[in-house]
Amino acid sequence: MNNSPEPFVELTDETPLFGTNENINDILMVFQQTINELLDFEMINDELIYKKDFNADTVKCAILSKLNPGCLGPSPDVIILEPGANPNSDEEILQVAKMYKDDFSMEDHSFLDIVADEAIYRRLIRCWDKWPKIRPILGQWHTSRDFCLVLIVLFSSYGLLSFASHLGVQFLDKFEMAVDYRSTARVLDLIWVAVGVAISIYINNKGMTTLEIIEGNNNENICLKIWYTYFKWTRIWKAHQMAMRIGNFDLQRDALSAASPLFASTAKFNYTTAIAHFLSTIVAYSKFEEKLRYCCSFKIPNKNFKNAHPTCFGFDEALKTFGVKFIKQHVNENVIDEKTLKDQIKDIQDERERIDLLMSKYLGDHSISSRRTARVVGTKIKDYNQKKSREKKTRAENKNLANPTEPTQIVIAESSNKRQFDLNDPCSPETTKPRLKKRKTTGSRHHTTKDEMDIFIVLKVYKDKLPDDAIANVHKHLSNVWTIKKVREWWYNHKDK
Question: N or C: which terminus of the chain has fewer CB atoms within 10 Å of its end residue's CB?
């Protein structure tokens, strides 16, 4: 939050937002030099000799040691709020954002900086007309994930998937969709190191330079040109990823600026627009840029080694890793009732804290205990807890009025959800009511019926991008088995290639 109005820079057509600059070129040259240093070329008896005692992790550590860490501020607190209303509504997102205006006692000239993935980012931009003091920050972890998809789309026709298969990837369709970001990033990283090493050996053996690869005859060394391009563009992705890991905002911005044309080349127009808007906001507000240098990532101090650099996560990555992912995996069935959903989320959060506490006691390492101790996640649900406690107290009082002769002692703490029961009391109906056994769905698979195929057939007219309204129109005619995600996956697997 700012205590004084921020200066604003008017952008023009000549304002540099995209493309490479001197800083990113120097960093990319460091990547190439690091591989050459590890290979340690020598010419002995007219034979090129090089070292082989390193791997992808060695390359990564060597590069990281040459980069300047950023994120100068302390480790912030991530607050997971209770779920709100429909996240697909611009109006609901605006109402959620306005809640912070009172919480932070914002002044009229203050900006509310919100980190969001690309989908929420675009909705926040559309809210500018109603509240121009919203200043969204594009989540860098989701951006890095889509950068992986860009590389896969660009080079899948040149044998990238074959390389991935040789590295042990079993489900190439999941790899193409980057279902597991870390696994996908690891495969692309291994291919990048292999390609970089192979190119370095080849050009040193031939007495060439990297400049000759690009500026040479277009009809010569076509395979070399293609894979050098992969090596070059993947360096930009790795620079962005490493910058996020060490909290270096300047490198993140430069890498994003250099990579932005690649998103447009693969028809990722939503991300192209979001990146352009984010970069223009950074240039327009100089204080905003200073703030991001100070706290552009979620920083976790490294307490195991003295003077060791902290590990940084993108804010969207930290939220997903430490809270949302665990909750998503444990929410049962398709919950429609809002109260039931909130109850499930609260129970899951409590369960996660108990698991963390149990693991810390088992391992004897209290530095990884519950999030309350590590200050990784604070759960801000006080209002919801108080409301729930009042409802329980009201139900208990009504029960006493209806059954005045029944001995009941129920103590409800306003600051807690715990209830204490008299041992002489009979069990409450909630505890004695038999629970329905849930049908196991593990291993079962729904087969698309003929009627469903007739509904899906209208989606095949879309070749490159599937609009949201088309998905919604089809989804409302299908059974509960089909989710929005499954409809999109069906189109992706059955569209005309």
Answer: C
